[in-house]
């Protein structure tokens, strides 16, 4: 930001870019949660570049509030750009839980076919931050007196083809249309005195972003009311 433009009015895009810098600083441990929340409130109250500049002055991108450099994350982008999340070699092709448990979560690459087995145990297959080896992923679940839970992000189509004997498969997320280019997840197998659950959730980062958007909208409405009162 140049010194001759401190009074130039900031746009919503400028405020959002500064907020992204603060999120990155929080993730890297440069800011604690209290500092992050204080600065974030100031971001959404800011009217000019001069208001925004001090909020990132002591961070690696200081002086670039109008065009900060994005933080390079190893996590795949979450959203409608599915092309960036399809392709590559699978990092895991199965899971076993015998009187115990297993998890597949975070950044990993789901295979075309993932086989999992649970006996007196349970497993969690979290696809929210996953990449996909192909456009279609088959998760074959066998649960005997146990269970498994599959978590998918919004936009992914779910098809359930498994069956249960004194148990069952969750069909609650079946029939929700997928986004263009998004992978399709097919659940197969069987559950004997057990169950296979399906949940659709956003990532923690996305949940935080939505929370910040609601907070920004509330602050903007409050500022508008104050301007009208003044």
From TrEMBL:
It comes from the Bacteria. Residues 207-230 are annotated as: Disordered. Residues 8-60 form the DUF1707 domain. InterPro entries: DUF1707_SHOCT-like. It holds the Pfam family DUF1707. This is DUF1707 and DUF2154 domain-containing protein. It comes from Streptomyces polyasparticus.
């Amino acid at each position: 930001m140049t010194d001759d433009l401190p009074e130039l009015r900031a746009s919503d895009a400028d405020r959002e870019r500064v907020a992204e810098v603060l999120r990155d600083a929080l993730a890297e441990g440069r800011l604690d949660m209290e500092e992050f929340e204080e600065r974030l409130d100031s971001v959404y109250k800011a009217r000019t570049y001069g208001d925004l500049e001090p909020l990132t002055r002591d961070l690696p991108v200081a002086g670039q509030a109008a065009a900060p450099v994005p933080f390079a994350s190893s996590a795949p982008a979450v959203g409608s750009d599915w092309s960036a999340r399809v392709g590559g070699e699978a990092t895991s092709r199965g899971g076993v839980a015998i009187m115990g448990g297993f998890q597949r979560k975070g950044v990993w690459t789901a295979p075309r076919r993932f086989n999992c087995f649970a006996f007196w145990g349970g497993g969690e297959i979290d696809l929210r931050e996953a990449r996909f080896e192909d456009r279609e992923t088959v998760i074959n679940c066998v649960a005997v007196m146990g269970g498994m839970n599959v978590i998918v992000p919004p936009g992914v189509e779910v098809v359930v083809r498994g069956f249960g004997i004194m148990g069952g498969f969750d069909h609650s997320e079946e029939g929700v249309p997928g986004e263009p280019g998004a992978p399709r997840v097919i659940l197969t197998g069987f559950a004997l005195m057990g169950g296979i659950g399906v949940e659709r959730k956003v990532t923690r980062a996305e949940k935080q972003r939505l929370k910040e958007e609601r907070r920004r909208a509330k602050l903007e409405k409050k500022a508008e009311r104050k301007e009208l009162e003044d």
